[in-house]
């Protein structure tokens, strides 16, 4: 028998507003580095984003659904995988339609990047002081079929202001940031609907999303280091 012990971590939902951006960025950074090595996490969700209570660093956990690319001749990054996994509430919208559910949609980096954004939205609107309270329109995401969850989240993108939903008191300062993220994905979904849509470059998309988050000097330095690791042109 073997016992495996891990360091105690805290849920990212326990962070205060001043620490959330840093911890969240560090989990995205971790994912980007893993993807560049051909490792796909497979389940970006609120329960899998943690914080080290000592270093205050964000930690990505639970690799039970992770997959590893096996392609030494081309790009090792699994941009053509079709093993769609994850927590429905946070999965990318186009992975919840009938085509994707039949595993005819390739798993892309931006799917997980979108999941990170849904997680951040969920934290800021549903968590207050570390406690989760579900209210309209977010409660419609739970216990739903993939298609109805997709519809409920499209409704959030299009009608969050009309629903008069506001971030919780703990994250009230993130209102403009969250609005920017929502509009980013609204515009992205609109572009996807066009006939001649092309998937955006992974690095550019990552830069665009991270550019919407608060940027401290520490985050700027970490991003510069990450970019040199994951950018094909920087290698």
Would you tell me which CATH topology applies?
Transferase(Phosphotransferase), domain 1
CATH architecture: Orthogonal Bundle
When the domains are counted, the total is 1
CATH class: Mainly Alpha
Mean pLDDT: 79
Characterization of the model:
By secondary structure, the chain is mostly helical. Helix content is 41%, strand content 7%. Strands 1-3-4 form a three-stranded antiparallel beta sheet. The chain has a two-stranded antiparallel sheet with strand order 2-5. Strand 6 and strand 7 (131-132) form a beta hairpin. Helix 1 runs parallel beside helix 7 (217-230) and helix 3 packs parallel to helix 6. The relative contact order is 0.14.
Write the layout of secondary structure elements.
Elements (H helix, E strand, L loop, with lengths): L9 E2 L5 H20 L2 E2 L8 E3 L6 E3 L6 E2 L29 H4 L7 H18 E2 L2 E2 L13 H14 L15 H18 L9 H9 L6 H14 L5
Antiparallel strand pairs: 1-3, 2-5, 3-4, 6-7
Sum up the structure in keywords.
globular; mainly alpha; Transferase(Phosphotransferase), domain 1; two-stranded antiparallel ribbon; 235 residues
């Amino acid at each position: 028998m073997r016992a495996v012990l891990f360091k105690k971590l805290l849920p990212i939902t326990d962070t205060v507003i001043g620490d959330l951006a840093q911890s969240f960025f560090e989990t995205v950074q971790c994912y980007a580095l893993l993807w560049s090595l051909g490792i796909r996490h497979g389940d970006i969700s609120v329960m899998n984003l943690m914080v080290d209570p000592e270093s205050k660093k964000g930690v990505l956990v639970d690799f039970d659904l992770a997959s590893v690319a096996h392609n030494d001749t081309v790009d090792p990054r699994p941009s053509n995988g079709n093993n769609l996994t994850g927590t429905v509430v946070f999965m990318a919208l186009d992975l919840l339609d009938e085509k994707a559910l039949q595993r005819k949609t390739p798993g892309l980096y931006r799917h997980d990047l979108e999941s990170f954004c849904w997680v951040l939205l969920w934290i800021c609107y549903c968590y207050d002081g570390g406690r989760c309270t579900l209210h309209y329109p977010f409660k419609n995401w739970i216990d739903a079929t993939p298609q109805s969850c997709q519809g409920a989240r499209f409704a959030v993108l299009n009608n969050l202001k009309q629903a008069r939903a506001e971030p919780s008191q703990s994250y009230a300062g993130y209102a403009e940031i969250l609005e920017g993220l929502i509009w980013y994905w609204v515009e992205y979904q609109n572009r996807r609907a066009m006939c001649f849509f092309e998937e955006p470059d992974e690095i550019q998309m990552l830069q665009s999303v991270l550019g919407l988050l608060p940027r401290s000097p520490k985050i700027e330095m970490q991003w510069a280091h990450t970019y040199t690791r994951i950018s094909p042109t920087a290698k």
